[in-house]
Amino acid sequence: MTPPAAPLRRKLIAGGCTLLLLPLVPGLARAATIVAVRTWPADEYTRVTLEMDTELKAEHFTLDNPHRLVVDIEGVQLSTAINDLVSKIRPNDPYISAVRVGQNRPNVVRLVFDLKQDVAPQVFTLKPIGEYKYRLVLDLYPKIAQDPLMALLKDTENDPLAGILESLAQGGPSEAPIPSVEGQKLPPTARKPPEGAPPPPPRTAPGLRPGRPILVALDPGHGGEDPGAIGKRGTREKDIVLQIALRLKKLIDAQPGMRAYLTRDRDYFVPLNVRVQKARRVQADLFISIHADAWIKPTARGSSVWALSQHGATSSAARWLAKKENDADLIGGVNLGAHNAQVAKVLLDLSTGAQINDSIRVGTQVLKEIGKINKLHKNRIERAGFAVLKAPDIPSILIETAFISNPQEEQLLRTPAHQQRIAHAVLSGIQDYFSAHPALARRG
Ligand SMILES: [Zn+2]
Fold first, then answer.
1. pLDDT band, very low/low/confident/very high, at 392 (cuts 50, 70, 90)
2. What's the gap in Å between 398 CA and the centre of ligand 1?
3. Across the strands, what pairs with 134?
4. How far is Cα 77 from Cα 83, in angstroms, rounded to an integer?
5. 329 alpha carbon to ligand 1 midpoint, in Å?
6. Distance between CA 16 and CA 30 in Å, rounded?
7. What is the DSSP secondary-structure string of 170-233?
8. DSSP string of 157-170?
9. Backbone dihedral region for residue 271 (phi beyond 0: left; psi -120 to 50: alpha; all else: beta)
10. Contact of 373 with 421, CB cutoff 8 Å
11. 416-436 and 407-414 are packed helices; what angle lies between their axes, rounded to 10 degrees?
12. Using CA of residue 299, residue 303, residue 308, residue 310, what is the dihedral sign?
């Protein structure tokens, strides 16, 4: 008689093998489903995102004459979602003129992007986070990195102050590196800081360069893949804060001796450390990150203003908020390793007490002005470890304009008149800060 245990064991082993094999070759089990396709064209770079229910392998290469980017995705069949990509390429996309989609081999879909210029592509995958499933991200950067300083000059064309900015660009002391990714070359005009050089010592007072306008870097939070907080009525933080920043830029540019620079001027994602690098590159005198708050309870309301803390947050709610804002990089999608992480790390380590003191001063003025147009969530500046406030040499504050999770405040944030009121209040706060500052007297 055969002992009954033997066939049972064999079955168990077979079962174990199946379990082990399946996750290794998902393509064999079934074709992955593309859930959504999104495109985010911008001057700085164009992003194409394919969202799917399984992590997929992709290979890519570029071709010249004419410039093309070819991406092969394994484990996918052609579907409506992926075909939608063709119609999602906009005629004004700075990098992509058209895309062709085809089943290249069984189980392999090939995307061919016809390009308007040579690109430095970044292709990477992201694990599920927030509302998103697996994402395959294609970032198309220009072959030569864009210098934020040149973008600022272009923006101030026909501006009587442009000459001053221009002289700064040519002979100025900006040692801050140009934000760039792997595979990009630096523009020929850019002066490269010596290898491993630390950022220059912090300027202790704003407006110390005589004759130069005060330059305010405005940083609308989130963007692109990262919507930020979303209100009950579907209002997205990224849209509201961009509107407020655009309004504030207009107000600032209309002031004599003041100019504004935007870290993003449309709906695309900018990593947190790139926002800081851009502000340093244009030598901003002030950095203002604009956000809208959210909390689980819809009753939470009011504005708040934040400065950096190097040693823990002022409360557990503050720590939670800083983590939520810092998660922007995870949701927006950063190709770790593509951006110069070295620079980011140097920045993290160099935050200074002087910067924070100045930040608290300007933040206090801004909070006072905002208090005139909205209820305050807290009556004083709060502090936490926000990554975006870590420029060692620029006073930096983060404004939570209101709670988008509060129905009344969501309604206010949607209103152009209220957006304008917020912009005016922030401008007044900035002006109070600069006029209270003795350095202004020297500017003449
Ligand atoms: Zn935010």
1. confident
2. 9
3. 52
4. 11
5. 11
6. 19
7. HH----PPPP-BTTPBPPTTPPPPPTTPPPPPPPSSTT-STTSPEEEEEEE--BTTB---B-TT
8. TT-TTHHHHHHHHH
9. beta
10. yes
11. 80
12. negative
Average pLDDT, the chain: 85
pLDDT in tens, 81-91: 888 899 999 99
Could you report the per-residue pLDDT of 141-173, keeping only the tens digit for each?
A: 999 999 998 888 887 777 766 666 666 665 555
Quote the CA–CA distance of 404 and 40 in Å, as a whole number.
24
Give the residues across from 288 on adjacent strands.
218, 397
In 3D space, the residue among 273, 429, 433, 262 whose CA is nearest the CA of residue 358 turns out to be 433
Long-range contacts for 150-157 (Cβ within 8 Å, ≥24 apart)? 150/187, 150/189, 151/43, 152/261, 152/282, 155/261, 156/259
Distance from C-alpha of 162 to C-alpha of 415, rounded to nearest angstrom:
33
CA of 223 to the centre of ligand 1 (A): 10
CA of 440 to the centre of ligand 1 (A): 32
Cα–Cα distance, 19 to 254 (Å, whole number): 66
Check if the beta carbon of residue 41 is closer than 8 Å to that of residue 94.
yes
The single-letter DSSP state of residue 281 is H
Tell me how far apart the terminal alpha carbons of the chain are, to the nearest angstrom.
106
Q: What span, in angstroms and rounded, lies between the C-alpha atoms of 407 and 405?
A: 6
| Phi and psi angles of residue 322, each rounded to the nearest 5 degrees, phi first | -60, -40
CA 321–ligand 1 middle distance (angstroms): 9
Here the tokens at position 60 are: 């890519």
| Burial category of 234 from C-beta neighbours within 10 Å (exposed 0-12, middle 13-18, buried 19 and up) | exposed
Residue pair 112/70 in contact (Cβ under 8 Å)? The answer is yes
Task: Give the C-alpha separation, 372 to 426, whole Å.
Answer: 11
pTM higher than 0.70, yes or no? Answer: yes
The predicted pLDDT at position 442 comes to 33
Residue 345 Cα to ligand 1 midpoint, Å, equals 22
Closest alpha carbon to 358 in 384, 389, 323? 389
Cα of 229 vs centre of ligand 1, distance in Å, is 7
What's the confidence (pLDDT) of residue 23?
42
In this prediction, residues 72-93 reach a mean pLDDT of 91
Write down the residue that tokens 């935007």 correspond to: 262
Return all residues near 412 (Cβ < 8 A) that are at least 6 apart: 374, 402, 418
